[in-house]
Recover the amino acids of this structure.
């Protein structure tokens, strides 16, 4: 009786799924792929691309990465499959996209498998490059998460002080209106005082002029009187 197994989709080529029973740890001791290959290379590939496991109603299943060397046609097929998956899952062409990141990560793992089977040293170097890139991306993610948290805290602190600032602004606007009113009143008083002072000065000037004219008139009259008195003598 055949058991239907739903194998998770991936761009990495795996061998046929193996039944691991209830305890998935027993699977590794039960059986391994039957392809003849150097044991050291097999261990290297399994450490670089560990077997994947998943649980279904029928039990726990596992898959080892395929040890079958890749040909040029396999690379072309991988490229076509990558483009197809990107289109089917509607991955974004630019910007941050978890779907695109996942698919390209799977594609890179498959290429590492190709290179490792052809040359283990190049495969190890490529794996180190992959791990370094992932570490850098994880560091940027951590930094981004920290910056977002910091930004949220700063925003919350700023929002907590907003009511107080709004109250201060209202008080200062009220003070400004009161001061503007006082300035208007003082300017009005100043205009009245200046007008009164100008009127008083005009009146004083007029009074002095009249007094001066009167004194001049009296002086002329007195001179005339004195001249007449002197002539009579």
């Amino acid at each position: 009786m055949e058991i239907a197994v739903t194998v998770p989709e991936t761009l990495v080529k795996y061998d046929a799924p193996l039944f691991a029973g209830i305890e998935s740890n027993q699977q590794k001791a039960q059986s391994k792929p039957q392809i003849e290959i150097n044991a050291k290379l097999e261990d290297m590939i399994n450490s670089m691309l560990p077997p994947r496991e998943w649980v279904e109603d029928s039990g726990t299943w596992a898959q080892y990465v395929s040890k079958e060397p890749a040909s040029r046609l396999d690379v072309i097929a991988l490229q076509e499959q990558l483009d197809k998956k990107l289109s089917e899952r509607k991955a974004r062409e630019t910007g941050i996209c978890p779907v695109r990141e996942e698919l390209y990560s799977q594609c890179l793992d498959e290429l590492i498998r190709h290179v490792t089977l052809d040359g283990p040293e190049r495969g190890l170097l490529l794996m180190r490059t992959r791990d370094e890139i992932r570490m850098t991306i994880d560091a940027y993610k951590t930094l981004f998460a920290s910056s977002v948290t910091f930004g949220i805290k700063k925003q919350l602190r700023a929002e907590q002080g907003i009511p107080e600032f709004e109250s201060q602004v209202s008080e200062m606007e009220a003070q400004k209106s009161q001061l503007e009113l006082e300035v208007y009143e003082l300017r009005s008083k100043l205009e009245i005082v200046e007008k009164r002072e100008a009127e008083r000065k005009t009146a004083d000037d007029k009074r002095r002029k009249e007094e001066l004219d009167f004194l001049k008139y009296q002086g002329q009259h007195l001179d005339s009187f004195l001249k007449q008195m002197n002539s009579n003598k």
Q: What stands out?
A: The chain has a mean pLDDT of 85. The CA atoms of residues 112 and 126 lie 7 Å apart. The helical segments are 27-30, 39-48, 72-88, 98-118, 120-232.
